[in-house]
Q: What sequence folds into this?
């Protein structure tokens, strides 16, 4: 089983990248395109800290889904999520379960890993390298 | 940009181990909250041990701990990935199709993070790696 799983590593890396991108772009579209309608996110001002975060999520998420400039984009998003965690969630409680920051932590570290591992074979980066 | 990419890529095995520990901690906290009642989360501490959620808590507690330590990382991550897929489709998916509205983003992320860890293994900072060295 180990060999089968290990053989799939590069492709599952691409899958993880696409899912992470989709989950992140969702926050950006809720803030700027009004979809899906989340009352707390739809009222965000573009020139506020969550608004700037929304721009990063919208553009960075799209680039991450496509797998274009994966490493620097994931690095920036990882930093954004770390800031998001420490500014919004950490002051509420020490425990992620109580401050609601589990998702920010997992985005932060998933993006940190993607910034070191790249986008895998199913990405625009890989297609451009082949060309 | 290439030199920056190479600089980041040099840390890849170690970041994989850190990523594994963090993913495992995020799962482990749910197991601890459900079965050991710490930290006290009203919704989770009332879960009876012999129920779908209680058994999920045992999975999170045991396999979460194994994944933190990096012991049988692949097996533990594979089981947890499946558990999170179940959690998403049983608990979150019926509420709404969109993850942002059904609150299932975390379950999806943990599912795919664990799926990747099942493929990639635990990295150099894990009991798996230590045991392989001593063999």
A:
């Amino acid at each position: 089983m180990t060999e089968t799983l290990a053989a799939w590593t590069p492709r599952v890396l691409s899958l993880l990248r696409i899912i992470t991108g989709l989950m992140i772009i969702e926050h950006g579209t809720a803030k700027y395109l009004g979809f899906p309608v989340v009352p707390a996110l739809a009222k965000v001002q573009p020139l506020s800290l969550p608004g700037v975060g929304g721009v990063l999520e919208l553009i960075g998420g799209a680039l991450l889904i496509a797998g274009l400039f994966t490493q620097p984009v994931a690095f920036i998003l990882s930093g954004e999520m770390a800031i998001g965690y420490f500014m919004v969630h950490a002051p509420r409680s020490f425990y992620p379960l109580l401050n609601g920051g589990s998702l920010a932590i997992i985005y932060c570290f998933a993006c940190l890993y993607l910034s070191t591992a790249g986008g895998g074979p199913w990405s625009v980066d890989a297609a451009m390298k082949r060309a | 940009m290439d030199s920056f990419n190479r600089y980041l890529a040099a840390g890849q095995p170690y970041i994989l181990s850190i990523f594994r520990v963090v993913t495992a901690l995020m799962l482990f906290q749910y197991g601890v909250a459900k079965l050991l009642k710490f930290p006290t989360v009203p919704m989770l501490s009332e879960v009876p041990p012999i129920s779908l959620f209680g058994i999920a808590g045992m999975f999170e507690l045991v396999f979460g701990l194994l994944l933190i330590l990096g012991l049988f990382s692949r097996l533990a991550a594979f089981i947890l990935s499946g558990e999170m897929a179940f959690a998403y489709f049983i608990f979150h998916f019926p509420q709404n199709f969109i993850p942002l509205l059904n609150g299932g983003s975390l379950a999806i992320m943990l599912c795919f993070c664990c799926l990747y860890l099942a493929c990639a293994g635990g990295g150099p900072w894990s009991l798996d790696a230590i045991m392989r060295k001593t063999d």
